[in-house]
Specification:
This protein is 25% helix and 25% strand. The protein is an alpha/beta fold. Strand 8 and strand 9 form a beta hairpin. The chain binds S-adenosyl-L-homocysteine.
Length: 284
């Protein structure tokens, strides 16, 4: 009989853990920005005529949140990434701040650190990928959209390397993150441990079943998509809550789906085409 999955708190001291794990080297390839410091360059190509990213208040807020001192090189690269993402349309200040703060290069293989701040998905092992930052940002914005107060509990399906969980930890009160592959569950635990986040529970388990022990959730976000949205997720969504997930509602055509649980029932909105890894059942 399988034991019940236990929430893992990466903040709990682990005497067996090495005091620090090897840090990928920086500076990395600087994707078209100057290497000298955390300067925000104006983004001139802005066909919509909207405010340039350099003057965008969210960018100023993101810049203010970036730590200085150690890690300055990577914070400049991250900030440049945020400027590009804002120019592409991301606008939620807290999401941009989180993207500016979380060190994506720590979540990918050391051979890939050069690409960590490009808008590209990257392999994380066991045939899985970390989504590109614009897609992660888009999903987080959808999750937070229309909320005045911070979200309470959020369920993440597909922990992967833990990058999105680290972003969520900055945006919501409590994160329950499920991963079905033990190797990635452990990798995420190792990646998150040095960040000392207090509000992420990593759980090895089948996300198709949700995680009833943490329910009801104010938000559910999935990084893997099946042919439909599992009913268990809808059951575990709190009234007023929102689910953001990919699903292939038509064969071979995966789209981003938003489901709001309103007083009148569930309201589904089908958004743009996306390409997420498949949602699978069972743990492995
Ligand atoms: N948010 C992740 C993205 C990981 S990719 C990150 O930031 O890295 C999607 C993940 O979903 C994969 O790790 C895959 O193993 C996982 N997955 C697929 N089906 C699942 C299921 N039923 N339950 C839990 N995780 C699942």
């Amino acid at each position: 009989m399988n034991p019940l999955p236990q929430p893992y708190k990466p903040t709990s001291p682990d005497p067996a853990a090495p005091s620090s794990r090897p840090r990928p080297a920086f500076p990395v390839r600087l994707a078209g920005i100057g290497a000298s410091g955390p300067t925000v360059r104006p983004v001139s190509a802005n066909p919509s005529g909207a405010m340039t990213a350099a003057r965008h208040p969210a960018i100023a807020a993101a810049a203010a949140s970036v730590p200085t001192g150690l890690g300055l090189d990577s914070s400049a690269v991250r900030q440049a990434m945020v400027v590009r993402l804002a120019a592409q349309g991301l606008s939620h200040p807290a999401v941009l701040q989180a993207l500016a703060a979380v060190e994506r290069h720590r979540f990918v293989d050391s051979a890939l650190v050069n690409q960590a701040y490009e808008d590209t998905s990257l392999p994380i092992g066991l045939g899985q990928t970390i989504s590109k930052p614009s897609v992660v940002g888009r999903m987080l914005e959808l999750l937070l959209e229309g909320r005045d107060s911070p979200l309470g509990r959020v369920l993440e399906i597909g922990t992967g390397c833990g990058y999105q969980a680290a972003l969520l930890a900055r945006l919501v009160r409590e994160v329950y993150s499920l991963e079905r592959l033990r190797g990635l569950h452990e990798k995420a635990r190792d990646n998150l441990r040095p960040l000392r986040v207090h509000n992420v529970h990593l759980i090895l388990g089948d996300g198709m079943l949700g995680y009833p022990r943490g329910a009801a959730y104010d938000g559910i976000v999935a990084a893997a998509g099946g042919d439909s949205i599992p009913l268990t997720w809808l059951d575990q969504l709190a009234p007023g809550g929102r689910l953001v997930a990919p699903a292939a509602l038509a064969p071979g055509r995966q789209s981003l789906i938003v489901v709001d649980r309103t007083a009148q029932g569930f309201v589904r909105t089908v958004l743009e085409a996306v390409h997420f890894v498949p949602l699978k059942s069972g743990i492995a």
